[in-house]
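#struct-pred

JT: dropping the chains for the assembly here, can someone run the whole complex?
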Amino acid sequence: MTYGIIQIVLFLSVVLLLVKPLGWYMTRVYENKPCGLDRILGPVERAIYRLCGVNPANEMGWKRYTVAMLAFNAAGFIVLYALMRLQGFLPLNPQHFPAVPSDMAFNTAVSFITNTNWQAYGGETTMSYLTQMLGLAVQNFVSAASGMAVLVALIRGFVRRNSQTIGNFWVDLTRSLLYILIPLSLIIAILLASQGVVQTFKAYPTATLVEPITMADGNSVTEQTIAVGPTASQIAIKHLGTNGGGFFNANSAHPLENPTPLSNFLEMLAIILIPGALCYTFGKMAGDTKQGWAILASMVIIFICLLALCCWSEQKGTPQLISAGADLQASSTQSGGNMEGKEVRFGIFNSALFATTTTGTSCGAVNSMHDSYTPLGGMVPMWLIQLGEVIFGGVGSGLYGMLAFAILTVFIAGLMVGRTPEYLGKKIESYEMKMASLVILLPIFLALVGTAVAVATKAGQAGAFNPGPHGFSEILYGYSSATNNNGSAFGGLSCNTPFYNYTLAIAMLGGRYLFKILMLAIAGSLAAKKYVPASAGTLSTSDSMFVILLISVVIVVGALSFIPALALGPIVEHLMMIGR
Amino acid sequence: MIRILRQSVACIVVFTVITGVIYPLVVTGVAQLVFPHQANGSLLIDNGKTVGSSLIGQSFSSPKYFWARPSATSPMPYNAANSSGSNLGPLNPALTENVKARITQLKAADAASKQAVPVDLVTASGSGLDPDISPAAAEYQVSRVAKTRNIDESEVRKLIAEYTRDRQLGILGEPRVNVLELNLALDGLKNK
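RK: done, full complex below.
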């Protein structure tokens, strides 16, 4: 218990300590100022522009920026889909996996270009090394960089005055990759390899079991085939890019994907580091770092409250486990609590912390199976996703989502005092409000309608694995996760069916691209506006009052939208648990 | 428009080469050079024979071995080519039944034991491949293993202590006992 709290404090301290230096560095990168690495990588950057026929000095309006982003993502989709369908004929396939079926390939390609990384597939039983490396890992990089580019464009919208342009997509993409994602991935990948994450192109090795297993049919199993692969390189970016699609089916619960408590710490840190630091980058680029800290403070406060609920509920476990005869009491020799679906090396606190981190951000990697969490413990990750992935959120996407909430907050505050709302010196008018409202309502709509369609149809009902309200929770979690581009699941859901593969893919596409297009529209509109200097009547957006307002708006919107649905899932399940 | 399409295709090709070929090859090169044991799966070799990985659990059911946690992989437990948790919900009757059956099994193997059964020893791990059990779960099994092997309990406890990993860097994670390594050491004891 004490150790659990110490580890959480340590984790958050390290995150907060790194926010400023990394945030400062990323500001240099996006403002095109010397950042140190440009001395080595500058020639590479220029070569990329030459090869791709990009003139980095060419500024784009928001529409052109949007088209470039969409076209690039579409090209990525085609490459990834083709790789999966053709992997049987391609090299680096030592396990001789056949082509990925078309509906699963469609779902997976959509899922990886949208930074969702939903796993309808089991990595070690479906994907060749070539597909993992040349397809999935590449999208891990570029989908994250696309999100960062959109954020930077939005920040420019606030910063620029009377401007028709918001930057150059190709430059933002290239600089995100070259100066931020690739160097950080190299460091994390090698640290992970030192802990035991595998990195090899050899076929799966076989071990002779110490004690053979006798199967139900009387046959004896004497060998264990151990899935390996080029894992460390992919896991680093899976976390840094808040992607979350595991190399192996069990994701970061797998001992070769997350072998030690230190690798676990690094993987959690890698998830939250860039989204946290981007808040500082935002403040710095906007010319007032307090603005960034206020946003970050709101995120941290919500994060800690929900983390506490998750830890408490998982440590307490269920009366069902206790009455079955298990000892759930935490002691110096066991973590106790609800250990179903959790690993001994992580115990309760590191599992709950990972679950909160991966769902507050849009990562979706898991080091424990959320489906087996207690009702309230499992509601925490689900609700964090439903809040719109703004508690840190995905790289780029989390902050632009939170900025939509900030716009809504200044609007509500403006209504209270009867003034035209302003944010960062820009008037927020009806156009921005319409777009921001759509940004907030759209994912809620997609998640709830998707769930409704699934529970109303036979094909949808067939996917639920657990009986009762928990089966409903699995479906609700699935559509919430897809729409908000998280990618984690209540894993019991049998989602590898044409129904789920296609409907979830639609949810992912809608959640990602409509969201992005609307945010870029806001960026374009803001950039064209003139600057309004703050006056005595302007609401401060960097003090504690604003932090409280912003938290309230996020919570109220999230609660009003999802409490009815949650009442049918985890809440009623909790009541059944304690009232049996 | 045509120009944007051309740029898109060129960019995806260039970044596929950089992040999909150069980057993983660099990581593989460094990992294989500096951490070859870890990069290849932390395999345990005994007399030239691969007997497992120190990071991947194996299934044990004989009373002379320490038992690992239940595993939900299919078709057999601890299938390291198809990792998976049980995904049973907290109120699923199947979960309660599995736990009860496991407790019955443990009690049957050591009728004299009156200790409470540690929860990790009766619940399936997330990966189905958990190499560890808690020190409490190891302690629970000491009397059975010692009796079956006809050795002193203190000798077994000494081995447990040897294969217990404390919190990493003194803080991180949970203390744990590696089941495969412990069992291999137990077998080694006999050969001495």
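JT: nice. The mean pLDDT of chain B is 95. Chain B touches chain A through 109 residues (CB under 8 Å).
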